[in-house]
Structures are given as C-alpha cells and as structure tokens.
UniProtKB/TrEMBL annotation:
Family: Belongs to the UbiA prenyltransferase family.
Cofactor or coenzyme needed: Mg(2+)
PROSITE patterns on file: UBIA
Name of protein: Para-hydroxybenzoate--polyprenyltransferase, mitochondrial (PHB:polyprenyltransferase)
Topological category with respect to the lipid bilayer: Multi-pass membrane protein
Native organism taxonomy: Eukaryota, Metazoa, Chordata, Craniata, Vertebrata
Spans traversing the lipid bilayer: 203-222
Family annotation (InterPro entries): Prenyltransferase, UbiA_prenyltransferase, UbiA_prenylTrfase_CS, UbiA_sf
Subcellular location: Membrane
Length: 239
C-alpha cells in the first residue's frame, strides 16, 4: 500500500511539472511507469516466492511427520520387550493363567532368590576368572522354578482369603481360571523340573535343597500364626 501511494504521488508530481502543452515529458513518465511496473512485478514475485516457500515447508513437515510415524510403527512392530509382563501377555491365552500363577509377570521375587546365588558363585570362582556360567544357569532356572512353586502353594492355601481381598481377587485360582487340581498338577511339574536341576549338584547341595522344601510349603501357613511370615521366607532364601 505504501509503495502504491508513493508511486501515485510521483506520477501526479510529474504530471504537474508539464510543459505548456499539458503533456508530461516522455522520458520521466516512462521511467516512473516502468519503475512502478517493476515494483509491482517484484512484489508479486516475492509474494509467489514466499507462498511457494511456505507451501514447500508445510509439505516437508508433513512428509517428516509421516516418515516418523511410519518409522515408529515399524520400530514398534519389530521391537520385543523381555519384561515379565510382556512375555506373559504375548503367551497363548490358555497358558497365561499358569504364568501368572507362578508370578512370571512380577519377577522381583525370582531376582531376590537368584542374586545371592550369583554372588556366591562369583566369590567361589578362581582369581582372575569368570564365574561358572553353567552354575549360573542352573541356579537361575532353580530360582525361577522354586519361586513359582512357592507362589503356587501360597495361592492354593489362600484361595478363600484371596477372594475377599481386592489386590488378590484376580489371581488365577481365586478367580476360578485354574482349579486346585490343575494347580496341583502344575506344582508337580515345577517341582519335578526343580528336582532335575538339584540332581545336577553335589550331594551336600541336594540335601540342603531338599530340606528347604519344607519351608516353601509351610511359609504360606505362617501368615495364619504370626505377623512375621517373612522370617520363614528369609530362612528359605538363605538356604
């Protein structure tokens, strides 16, 4: 708007400075007209250029967003999480109640059993040598199976109590997803596999592991007798 007004004033001024015949000198008028046309052409070019630049930026931003979205989708489809909850959720539907019965979706108890074993195996290793990987694997499998067996026994004992507590009402036995007989068969399978792991050790370890089975069975009953059932659980973990 300012440039247009300035051009008009310049044209009017040039027209006022005419000769006696009332005509504008051709050179000045043509110069002003050409300047005005060049100014308008440059403004239109700048406007078109700015609009095209904004359009290109918008298209580039949209393509980047689409590319990131597709990349996120691809990465999400290819990614695999090793957390306990993801393993349980990715298992078949008829297997998930058994995995939740052995608390595979909450592996903190397994780690509490397994980490002291790893420390002991590391301390027993020769100087400047790595711990025995075979022993680490055996004790890791044993910790997973025995923790699952303890949770199965706990849910079998506390079925009626778990139904009355909101935190435990959704457990597989309390909710009716698994019967006590099915849980007993599953418990037998876990203990059989744990016995196979135990037989890979020496006789002293076999005797010590067999003696801790009584604590695994009686631990859930201690909650009916004392407010300190964790003492029995700690003794079980120590052994």
């Amino acid at each position: 708007m300012f440039c247009a007004r300035l051009s008009r004033r310049l044209i009017l001024t040039a027209m006022r400075r005419t000769d006696g015949r009332g005509t504008c000198p051709p050179p000045r008028l043509s110069t002003l007209s050409s300047c005005f046309l060049q100014n308008q052409t440059a403004r239109s070019k700048d406007r078109v250029h700015s609009e095209s630049t904004a359009l290109r930026r918008a298209l580039c931003s949209q393509s980047r967003v689409r590319f990131r979205y597709r990349k996120t989708q691809r990465c999400g489809s290819r990614s695999f999480s090793l957390s306990g909850a993801s393993v349980v959720n990715s298992a078949p539907a008829h297997v998930q109640p058994y995995l939740r019965l052995m608390r595979l979706d909450k592996p903190i108890g397994t780690w509490l059993l397994y980490l002291p074993c790893t420390w002991s195996i590391a301390l027993a290793a020769e100087p400047e040598c790595l711990p025995d990987l075979g022993m680490l694997a055996l004790f890791g499998t044993g910790a997973l199976l025995m923790r699952g067996a303890g949770c199965t026994i706990n849910d079998m004992w506390d079925k009626d109590f778990d139904k009355q507590v909101a935190r435990t009402a959704s457990r597989p036995i309390a909710s009716g997803e698994i019967s006590r007989m099915q849980a007993l068969v599953f418990l037998g399978g876990q203990l059989s596999l744990a016995l196979g792991v135990l037989l890979c050790l020496n006789y002293y370890s076999i005797a010590l592991g067999a003696s801790s089975l009584s604590l695994v069975i009686t631990y859930p009953l201690m909650k009916r007798i004392t407010y300190w059932p964790q003492l029995v659980l700690g003794e079980c973990c120590r052994r």
